[in-house]
Amino acid sequence: MRTRALIALAGCSALLAAGCAGGAGGTASGPAADVAAKPEFSGTLSILTKFAGEPLESYFADLAAKYRQRHPGVQVELIQETDQSIKDKTKTLTASNALPDIYFTWTGNWAENFVRGGRAADLTKVIGPDTEWGRTFGRGSLEAFAYDGKYYGIPLYNNGKFMGYSKAAFAKAGVEVPKSFEELLASCAKLRQAGYEPIAFGNKDGWPALHYLQQLFAYHVPKDTLEADFHPATAKLDHPGYVAALKQFKTLVDQCTDTKAGTNGVLYTSAQEAFSGGKAAMYYQEVLEFDTTVGDKALDPGDFGIFPLPVPQGAAGDPEALEGAPEGYLINARSPRAALAIDFMKSPPRWRTPRRCRLRRTGSRARSSAPSPSRPPARRSTRGSSGSTGPRGWWSGSTPSPCPRWPTPGSRAARR
User: What pTM did the predictor assign?
Assistant: First the structure.
């Protein structure tokens, strides 16, 4: 069993690498970007995002339009991709040495590849924790994009993983919000008897399973051991918590999903639709998915609740860990418009909390209101809002509160 578990864990690592790494091969050439220079407000600024489609695509379009109004000599080229398509798009642009001036990034191996390849500008002079701009961010958010003591990323928001649930489904089945992983498994039979798929799940893209496993690994494996196992030089992968996590995940898939062994052929968007359409009682989702599962869908926002994946009984890891990470942007290390890119990223001074975050998290470890809209994204301490140790990174790293706050398009430009 231990051998099969380690093979599965290695397979998970390979899946992650295939989805979030390998796009920055080779080394960039040309003069280094001067991010601290005075910007010239002319030319075309190119930006690659992963927010194609509503409600976020128009947000970035509005943001670009407002920037052009303030600086008529600047054109903004938006390249809007989806969460899945941006991986291939970024790899293609990298291979052809055509990365835009500003481009979206995840933390971990994905961002590190661009840093090692010389394709991400060193932003320490402008966003280091001791700079004026850097002091407006939580230290943990900046550290998530730090490599060898230098800071490369601009955090946009913090993302985290919660179990979304239908309050009506729970009420019909006579189920309470589970306080342990064992209670979560026990609730599935009652929800199925009430006519619901207990947990909607689709793993065709690979990462939905990784998110479950990463959370369970953090619960079952002590933090120091887990961190050491993230690095090939120190990894042993011999803690029994890995086997326990894998067994529990398999039990959840077998007992609580309709897709079961066929889940690798099901898209995560199909799971979203099953939950939002009222067919499933639960769906493990990122904060950024909240708007896709409520609102115009069959699931009314007032009927939508969330809780962290419950901690298994007797787990030896961190019971306060939360799966998640900040996401943000890198500046092209060879961009002649690097200073203009920094000005664009600094420009939105006011921030708002999306409707999806104006919720109270239900559960034994999280019951706090959404953060104040007067502060920008990724700007809380590395502890969770309920005093937790904060979200675990998408496979590596740890970050602040998972509720994102977005800059308000059209707000008056100011320097922080």
Answer: 0.69
